[in-house]
Write a structure and sequence with these properties.
The protein has 338 residues and is mainly α. Helix content is 72%, strand content 2%. It contains 13 helices and 2 strands. A two-stranded antiparallel ribbon has the order 1-2. One of its GO terms (molecular function) is endopeptidase activity. InterPro entries: CAAX_protease, Rce1/LyrA-like_dom. Keywords: Membrane, Transmembrane, Transmembrane helix. This is CAAX prenyl protease 2/Lysostaphin resistance protein A-like domain-containing protein.
């Protein structure tokens, strides 16, 4: 992967404390210190964590309403597999624009970056795909560990991935999970959340938004994958454009997930196992090879985008703690007695 372009004016090492404060709602006149800066970052993390919680609550309420028998009958959802999820995600898209329209329309103090001075070349995109496949391979290994541990404890683990596979019927379900969901999630996480955390440092914004992304999934194994996926997509969105992170997210859901799932369900079991093992091996070897090739550039990139002293104290946040507790509760509900 080639070295992403970086504007020196965006680097936390050169950005003034007044600039960062101004982006969050006005310049700060207080003398800078790690503790005061940490408190400011904590407020920013609180706001984005609470916004993610509100999004999660609204999404669950919408899903609950659409699943009511009277509503489902009126909308014809019961007769169209996947229609309920599709309508729910369309409502959440309206919610995003209704609450963060200025950001998403590229206006205001936190505009979403739809255009970039340069586009990623083929090497960057191929490298990103291999890293996503590496994340998937890690998830597969972790899922095996969780399944073995669950069986030893007399429990059954119901992963999100298996539930999605069981619910993929017709064309509306893949349309929702492979296209609409990536668009909504990118606008929320790489658009709104990461954009509003960016004044505290690029790396901090990428990692924190990825962690929030993982918490929203509430599944111990898929959360690991979404955290790693969020890191890759966050770098792409930060250095190039959110449109490229959307494209990669759609490619992951459409090709690496849905298309591979459909393929392995239509071939003999032995062939399906060989395909899955081959993809896992390709992800491990290819992803690790990419990390080895970019290790020097990655280290330089992290040094150039290090955050101010005290920034990571912002993770000691009430909003983030509540989000983690909700994620843990959701994850626990995926285990049942054998």
């Amino acid at each position: 992967m080639q070295q992403p372009n970086q504007s020196s004016s965006d680097s936390p090492a050169t950005e003034s404390i007044e600039t960062g404060a101004d982006r969050q709602g006005g310049p700060s006149t207080a003398p800078w210190s790690p503790s005061s800066w940490g408190a400011q970052v904590r407020r920013g993390v609180d706001l984005q964590s609470l916004y993610a919680i509100v999004y999660l609550v609204v999404a669950n309420l919408i899903a609950g309403v659409l699943n009511l028998p009277s509503v489902a009958a009126a909308l014809g959802i019961a007769r169209q597999p996947g229609l309920g999820d599709l309508l729910g995600d369309l409502v959440m898209l309206v919610f995003l624009f209704g609450t963060r329209g200025q950001d998403l329309l590229g206006r205001g103090s936190h505009p979403v970056q739809y255009k970039a001075q340069t586009n990623p070349g083929p090497a960057v995109l191929i490298g990103a795909i291999l890293l996503i496949m590496l994340a998937s391979s890690i998830e597969i290994g972790f899922t095996w560990v969780v399944n073995q541990g669950s069986q030893a404890l007399g429990l059954v683990y119901h992963s999100t991935t298996s539930q999605i596979a069981a619910g993929q019927h017709g064309f509306l379900s893949p349309l929702d999970t492979a296209v609409l969901v990536p668009i909504v999630e990118e606008l929320l996480l790489r658009g709104v959340v990461m954009g509003r955390l960016r004044p505290y440092g690029r790396t901090f914004a990428i990692v924190t938004s990825s962690f929030i992304f993982a918490c929203l999934h509430g599944d111990i194994t898929q959360s690991l994958f979404t955290f790693l996926l969020g890191l890759v997509l966050g770098v792409v969105a930060m250095e190039y454009s959110i449109l490229w992170s959307m494209a990669l997210h759609i490619f992951n859901n459409l090709v690496l997930a849905d298309a591979m799932m459909w393929l392995t369900q239509t071939v003999p079991a032995r062939t399906a196992m060989m395909i899955n093992q081959g993809m896992t091996l390709l992800g491990l070897v290819g992803g690790l090879a990419v990390l080895w090739l970019i290790r020097g550039r990655l280290a330089d990139h992290l040094r150039a985008n290090r955050s101010r002293s005290g920034t990571y104290r912002g993770w000691i946040s009430l909003g983030l703690a509540v989000l983690v507790v909700l994620a843990a509760i959701n994850a626990a509900q995926r285990f049942s007695l054998a």
